[in-house]
Structure formats: structure tokens, C-alpha cells
Specification:
3-stranded antiparallel sheet; Protein Transport Mog1p, Chain A; alpha+beta
């Protein structure tokens, strides 16, 4: 499978994170919170994910929602149901169903072993510039589809990679033309033997400090189980991913082209989705392919 198709597949499992609506209570409306807040059925302690590849050591500080409950939360936020997640997490002191509420959605990308040898060579400011250009280039298509232009403002938190623990995290500030609110996408990726565990929070920029405080510990609570750990990779038998860390950041918000029709329809109906669109297929990939051609030559 070619690199373009692979990068399109990067978020087949993460498409929900590219389209999660910020909770209605967290947006600009000052209206009162609902009179009755539904109860969420959660678990605490050590949580083995449904696919058995990783364990979350949450203790009592975080609550875990199983996939069914995570899908119900998405629907309460105004999203369509989704059965592709590995569940969701939120801090014990946060209620996702109140004003300012937020949660972290878990997905697993089974696309092979991601080589991290490019970690020291990535120029994140250069990448941000390319991602901005890709976002702006995609805005004509967004407007034609009937929803407002979107702008990638900056890193809310520059990408950082811990080579020892194989964990990568970053955050982006995003705005749309129809809203004064600036949105926050906070991402954590944990590299495994043949896949990547994704943890993504969607909130508003005024929640950055809270989200940063609560997301940082998640770098420590998530670990792959025996047989799925990065160090257990066997080059003779295991699959290699056709992309590196840079593509996880720049391409981690692209979606399969076949899914965009559905997403556009949802956007037309609900005007509040956070979509990066084809950022990864813009300036960043153009530059990537240019480099590959030079290397091949």
C-alpha cells in the first residue's frame, strides 16, 4: 500500500477525534446547565483495554468509560454514535456533561511499527507552517461544503517525544470563522510493537491549563502489555509502518477520503465539529514527497 493510502489510514481509527464536537456546555452559550445531568457508568484502577494490547493504571484520579459508554457520551455531546474507540478517560474532578467538561478518547491504530529514528530531525516550526498552509488550502472545499473556514493558529504545546518511554505529545490551537471561541486539540501517542495508542482531548483554549495538567500524567498511566511493547519488535516477523513520527503529527488528523462525505453531512447539520481536514495532504506531504524524490534521484 502506498504512503498516501497509509497516511489516509492513519486516522481511520482516529476519525472520531478529528470530528468530535466540543461539549455544548463548553461553547459560547451562557445558558444554564441542564437541570438533570445523566450519570456516567465508569471504572477506576487498572483498566485493560478491550483489544487487550494495553493497560491504563488510572488509580482513583481518572474515570474510564467503556466503548459503549464512550459512544453514549459522544451522542450526548451531539456526535453520532461510534463503536471504534477503546473507551474514554476523564479526570475524577471533571464531569464531561457540565459546562467546561471534557474527556480523552482512546483509539488504537494497527498499522505497524513506527520508526522513531526521525525524532531528532523534525523541525516542528517548519511542520507547523506547512500544516497551516494545508489547512488554508483546504478551506475552499470546506466553504463549498457549507461550513466555515478553519484556521490552525499555532502549537498550544509544541510536540515533544520521550525516546525512553516511546511517548509523543503535542497540542494545537484552532479557530473557525463562525465562532469567537478558539479550540484545543491535545494529543498523546504511545508507540507499540505494531501499533499506536492514541489519546486525544478536545476542549476550548481557556481550558488549556486544566487539560495540560490532567493530560501530562496520562503519559505515565498508559503502557502496552507484554507482547505488544515497542522493544519487543521483531524485524523478521513484524510489520513496519510506512511513516514516522512526523506523519503521526501532521497526518494524524487526516481521514479516509471515503469518509469525508459523511463528515461533511454531519458538519452541515451541526456546525460545531472540529475538523482539520486534509492538513496532512497539503504542504507537509508535498514537502515530504519532494524530499523522497530527491533521495530517490
Amino acid at each position: 500500500m502506498g504512503l498516501v493510502n497509509k497516511l489516509a489510514n492513519i486516522t481511520a481509527a482516529w476519525v472520531l477525534c478529528a470530528a468530535i464536537a466540543v461539549p455544548a456546555f463548553a461553547q459560547e452559550s451562557p445558558e444554564a446547565e441542564p437541570e438533570a445531568i445523566p450519570e456516567l457508568k465508569f471504572s477506576t484502577g487498572d483498566i485493560v483495554l478491550p483489544n487487550k494490547v494495553a493497560t491504563l493504571h488510572l488509580g482513583e484520579k481518572y474515570h474510564y468509560l467503556a466503548p459503549k459508554e464512550a459512544s453514549e457520551l459522544l451522542q450526548m455531546w451531539g456526535n453520532p454514535p461510534d463503536d471504534t474507540t477503546q473507551g474514554a478517560i476523564y479526570p475524577a474532578g471533571v464531569n464531561p456533561l457540565t459546562r467546561g467538561g471534557w474527556a480523552v478518547f482512546l483509539t488504537y491504530l494497527d498499522e505497524g511499527h513506527v520508526d522513531d529514528s526521525d525524532a531528532k530531525d523534525i523541525d516542528y516550526e517548519d511542520m507547523l507552517k506547512d500544516m497551516k498552509e494545508g489547512t488554508e488550502a483546504n478551506n475552499d472545499a470546506r466553504k463549498e461544503a457549507g461550513y466555515p473556514a478553519m484556521h490552525l493558529i499555532s502549537w498550544a504545546e509544541p510536540p515533544r517525544y520521550d525516546a525512553a518511554t516511546k511517548k509523543l505529545y503535542w497540542a494545537k490551537e484552532i479557530s473557525t470563522e463562525d465562532s469567537k471561541t478558539h479550540y484545543l486539540n491535545y494529543d498523546v501517542r504511545v508507540l507499540g510493537r505494531e501499533g499506536v495508542l492514541s489519546m486525544e482531548a478536545v476542549a476550548t483554549m481557556d481550558q488549556l491549563q486544566q487539560v495540560r495538567t490532567d493530560m501530562r500524567p496520562l503519559l505515565d498511566v498508559a503502557e502496552f502489555n507484554e507482547g505488544y511493547r515497542y522493544a519487543e519488535f521483531n524485524s523478521k516477523t513484524d510489520r513496519m509502518a510506512e511513516y514516522g513520527l512526523g506523519a503521526l503529527i501532521a497526518g494524524g488528523v487526516a481521514a479516509k477520503l471515503g469518509l469525508f462525505g459523511k463528515l461533511f453531512a454531519l458538519l452541515l447539520a451541526a456546525k460545531k465539529f472540529i475538523i482539520i481536514g486534509l492538513v496532512a495532504l497539503g504542504g507537509f506531504l508535498a514537502k515530504m514527497f519532494g524530499k523522497k524524490k530527491d533521495e530517490a534521484a
